[in-house]
Amino acid sequence: xxxxxxxxxxxxxxxxxxxxxxxxxxxxxxxxxxxxxxxxxxxxxxxxxxxxxxxxxxxxxxxxxxxxxxxxxxxxxxxxxxxxxxxxxxxxxxxxxxxxxxxxxxxxxxxxxxxxxxxxxxxxxxxxxxxxxxxxxxxxxxxxxxxxxxxxxxxxxxxxxxxxxxxxxxxxxxxxxxxxxxxxxxxxxxxxxxxxxxxxxxxxxxxxxxxxxxxxxxxxxxxxxxxxxxxxxxxxxxxxxxxxxxxxx
Amino acid sequence: xxxxxxxxxxxxxxxxxxxxxxxxxxxxxxxxxxxxxxxxxxxxxxxxxxxxxxxxxxxxxxxxxxxxxxxxxxxxxxxxxxxxxxxxxxxxxxxxxxxxxxxxxxxxxxxxxxxxxxxxxxxxxxxxxxxxxxxxxxxxxxxxxxxxxx
Lengths: 249, 150
Prior knowledge:
The structure holds two protein chains of two kinds. By secondary structure, chain A is an alpha+beta fold. In chain A, strand 5 (175-178) and strand 6 form a beta hairpin. The two termini of chain A are 35 Å apart. Helices cover 31% and strands 16% of the residues of chain A. Chain A contains eight helices and seven strands. Chain B folds into two domains: 2-109, Alpha-Beta Plaits (2-Layer Sandwich); 111-150, no CATH class. A four-stranded antiparallel sheet of chain B has the order 2-5-1-6, with helices on one face. In chain B, a hairpin with a 2-residue loop joins strand 3 (55-58) and strand 4 (61-64). In chain B, helix 1 runs antiparallel to helix 2. The longest helix of chain B has 15 residues, at 82-96. The chains are: A alpha+beta, B alpha+beta. The A-B interface holds A 160-166, 169, 173, 176, 178, 187, 194 and B 7-12, 15, 37, 40, 45, 47, 49-50, 68, 70, 99.
């Protein structure tokens, strides 16, 4: 197996697990296909995928060797639109974080474009592939209903204190903790458009489980400096990069 | 002297109500300020099940909660008792804030009139005990509630 991430701590191991495509992610909850479509908000549930017209089969395409070598993903074959899903991960022991998301997505999925920012991470893909990927991301260890936000816009909140029930701040209040059921419900789609019926995302993970699953080094969890192996590799990269020169000409 | 309570999580209305009632029942507490992110305005289309904004009752007085509690500043009437009051507040917080909190002694509520105060209320017309009780963008009557002490 390739060395995906250095380190001897649990955080490092979790990072390796995410980035290793052979590692099977634990399924933690069930969200229906219709629920995923509603959350994404790109099409109404049951509606056909919008695709190029005339269909790709009827188009005269220029001959291209790459098209012969690379087998297209389903969405590309059908000429789907490119759509997106964006996640925000709280600094308070969220299971995933933006850089790790990008690294792991690129190891796990084909035909995607991942964009990383400090507090949020966007993934773009052909619509039907995006729905398949989103379902996997929402149902597995990548996601926690309280500490991970699905936010197409107005993403602010990843570094703010959590609410007393453990839910991350969201100015549009898309994911809401239902006191009666103890579950988090998605009452708006990812860009904040009200849903007719809330999509139940399930119970938030407890603090202990989150600390076991997190990929974030924290002083009050596992501190980065305590991970000797990871720090050593980081030093090595820093020294070789400095000695080699950033831009040798 | 003031005491600042900094909960490690943002408090909801129920817990704020409990905390304020307990703090207000202590002797030597003169003024209490709660500070934090503003609650969204009431939205008639919102499902009332999810509404966070509500009226809380502190010492039999109804107060419309405008913010989610991120910090609580407590002004002490007698500075020499500050350590005792801090210990009492700490005990209350240990019971009500299981997720952790920080507590500090210092000066957290301002005591001098600002230029904005003078512009808004006229030179020197704000009573001393109302200085620093609200932010410059809000009206005093919207934010300050006076509780009668026995």
